[in-house]
## 1
Amino acid sequence: MNRKQKKWLHRILCAAVLYIAALILYHNQSLFPGALAEYISIGIFVAAYFIAGYDVLKKAVRNIGRGKLFDENFLMSLATIGAFAIRQYPEAVAVMLFYQVGELFQNVAVDKSRKSISDVMDIRPDYANLLTADGERKTDPEEVKVGDTIVIKPGERIPLDAEVLTGESLIDTAALTGEPVPRTARQGDTLLSGCINTTGVLTAKVTKPYGESTVMKILDLVENASSRKSESENFITRFSAVYTPVVVFSAIALAFLPPLFLPGHPFGQWINRALTFLVVSCPCALVISIPLSFFGGIGGASRKGILVKGSNFLEALAKTEIAVFDKTGTLTRGVFEVQRISPANGFTPELLLKNAAYAEYYSGHPIALSIRKAYGKEIDPADIRNAGETAGHGIHAEVSGKMILAGNRKLLAENGITVPDGENEAGTTVYVSSDGIYAGSILIADKIKDDAAEAIAGLKKNGVRKTVMLTGDAKETAKAVADSIGMDEFHAELLPGGKVDQMETLLKEKSAKGKLIFVGDGINDAPVLARADIGIAMGGLGSDAAIEAADVVIMTDEPGKLVTALKISRKTLKIANQNTVFAIAVKLGVLVLGAFGLANMWEAVFADVGVAVIAILNSMRNLSTKDV
Amino acid sequence: MRRSYRLEGLDCADCAAKLERKLSSIDGMKSATVNFMTLKCTLEADDERMDEVASKAEKMIAVQEPDVEIRKL
């Protein structure tokens, strides 16, 4: 509690003590002669009322002047003054007192959730150590320019996006990615602002101004996410715009119509019922708790390395029916590696790989790169002669005097070398021959990400009806990947335009309320990202294009985060729905009971502030992401 | 062009929602958001009208929410 809230609490306690004293006196009027006890107790009630509610009254008067008649303060003042007028003194003071207790509680709860949200987003650097001619100087990150050199010590937050000049250290990226394992940073590596330097001193050259740095982009995105409202929020806005006037006018009708038209109904009784209406007329519980649940969900997701660009997207995620994936870079690592070496005719695996690596020495093809990487040793170019390439088929070169061919089946067949039939495998197979003798084959394939299969299973468990993979790759490769991770459907050999066509077909397949998500790496798939209901870019850390194009950005390259995002979305929606139903049900219930005289001020106060507090507490559950 | 403010002391969610609606109706305002949780108010208008729109908005906030302290970010 802050100072203002403590003062508030003291006021409430003070008023409560007076209230109890007055109440005792009011019910034991024989203590004083005549009507004296009643007058004294009324005096104390009035004093307690003003101590508890003078600020509410002040605001109410100010608001009348500005024509804000449906303001909470005004309605509460009207209700309590009305109670005084019909000589319900204890009720009048109690309503104000409880209203204030509820408001204080609400205030503390909002402060607390504001704090937890700012903790979630506490990635803003406080200062930068700028290296100048006169040595190091602590400065505001905003004053550092591109090209300046900064020093980052162990334990400090990286203030700006930069490139390491000297030093080596482990970088904790958890605040940005949710990833617990630190990354190593050496000379030439990129440092992202918001991460924490843990072990060594680094000097680095700033690559982006503070305003465009990763940390500012993320904060901006999360803070502005609430401007894209979810359907639940829009519903509440529309509901509350109608609800308050309707309840207030019903109260007026309730106060005057029955006594005027029904004989034997005194005004006092109906005014009492009308005042009950006024107390319940504020939609505050809903107006606070729904955006709070969404904000909590967006904040919690960002802590897990998932940036959601709007409440509407967070809401829509829970309704995902079809999940479409790009293959390369999303489900697979997008890095080609030698997966299998199968020597033949007495060649050793080492010799086979060596021959292939030497033959491919001058080639810049990704396959050549991965073979040389697998070989891993220095290659002496003096041993290579007459190297050449047959486009689309492979390579030929003289290595240490032997004629080496490395390429597809066709290349070897054209040179009269028979290749034994092999099984169809995902990836690219390079066949190698040495002086006309078949030496074996090397399989190069893109590796499937470790958690891809788990992610697909997780999506299924969370209500996704169908998973589809789109790829430009060959059918065999696509099939192998799709089968091994349990994908429902795949479409291979697609040109970029073909992916959009496939999306159109899939969009027609889903139900009206269901959503289609597309998950890609954000490179080359902008049209598909835009066409999907929700475009999700994976591996967005440091990639501006991906952050721009997508609705949801997954900072790491784990498909498993999708399941986390879906779970957070479902939890958010559940909490928002619980609050909506609970608040509306209680309020309507009290209104109906109140109209028939079965509920009084006490129930009304509960329906107003009690419900608000319960709804806020329920929403605050969404700030914790421990269980997702 | 965007301009942001911090509305210190904004303590009622319903007021924040109402304020947002009122601000959005200012002539020349492209979009206005009042975030009750972060206490941040963001206004968007065309570059040449920004100053005019922002001063109208500042006045409106002062009238609607006299207890709120407006700080430019």
## 2
Amino acid sequence: MTRYLLSKFAAILVVLYISNAFGAETLRIVVFDDIMISIPPETTVKGHSTEVNWEETKSLSSLIPSDGKITLLPGQGIEINIGTGNTEGTAASESEKYVQTIQKMSRAEWINWLTNMNRALIFDIQNRKVKGAGLVSGDQVGNRYRAMLARSVWYEGEALQNLAILDVFHKKSMIGFTLKWSGPEGGEGEKLADQILSSIALAPDQSEH
Amino acid sequence: MSYRTIILLIAFMPRFAQAAGWVDVIASDDIALSLPEKAVVKIAGAASKLADIGSLADLAERGVTTEIVLDNNVKFSVCISDDFATARRTNAYSRLEWLLFQARAGATFLEQARTEGSDGIAFASGDRIGGRYRTISAQSAWTKDGAKYSRISLDIFHKDGIVSFNLDWTGLRGSSSEKLATEIFSSVRIKNASNQHD
């Protein structure tokens, strides 16, 4: 009997460990095509009059209006803007050309492009005459898509404003994730924002690793 | 000339064009790069031809820098360290932790450029190689004795340690030295990778 109870207890522990390790507190949903994100179940959609049933919502595409943009509110005062359309202000063909040019860049061209983007970000912070800092960097989503990763922080009064961006250069268009929150470095907002930002990846069956 | 000959010529032409004067070299394990055939490898002053070498990792002790002399005034150096603990930790960083690491790396490269000469500038950025290993790419430049010095660096956080490449040259932007250095820098990839940027 004791052995039976111990084995049951061990099995429960294993299940708890696995569900915790795979993020039981988060929902994994498809953003667009083969790109996925993990969000807390209590996440709401800005402008949506009713709560979203995340268990039934398998893909964000079904919620995204015609302008291709959606704002998620996962808690801790974080706003996630997701755009799954063309790069801003460009026609579909132009956008496709832009995305494909970036995907084909050599490493040297890519770092030059990032250096220019970083310069633009710094100028933007300086122009706004605020005390802040920013960094633009390169990343990949899976072994498939190049991505631009950026973060900037600045003060508005006493409050530290944070912005984190991941622009994924997907097949024909750019999928942009912009996370905004207010709060100190190492705070709960930053922890959740980092968790969500780091969860953006290829769908498991699409991953090559 | 038959249409089959033309098709064969078209099919093989890009390969011939890419291979002419260049040789594929294994840096370490699954990391490969292309170098000019004429390059000479120098270890502790002794020189040997690149064509006689299989893998750069077999050439020198771990943690010791190997220099490869290239034409066009470009110096290429590689150092493979056993610091797999740092490499593993870096690959496990979350995206925001990774950005913080890059900001620190950028500061280190800037400090290094300022130590090398006057007007030192540097920019470091993160990337990945083959979606598998995180990398830091950095560009630095400085002035010394009236000459412009440039360096591009690539640190790969590999599963067995850190593979570091440096390409140093003198001269202005757009020079043949810069062209050669950037070509080598862009050629670093996962062995047998099909993606250009891998």
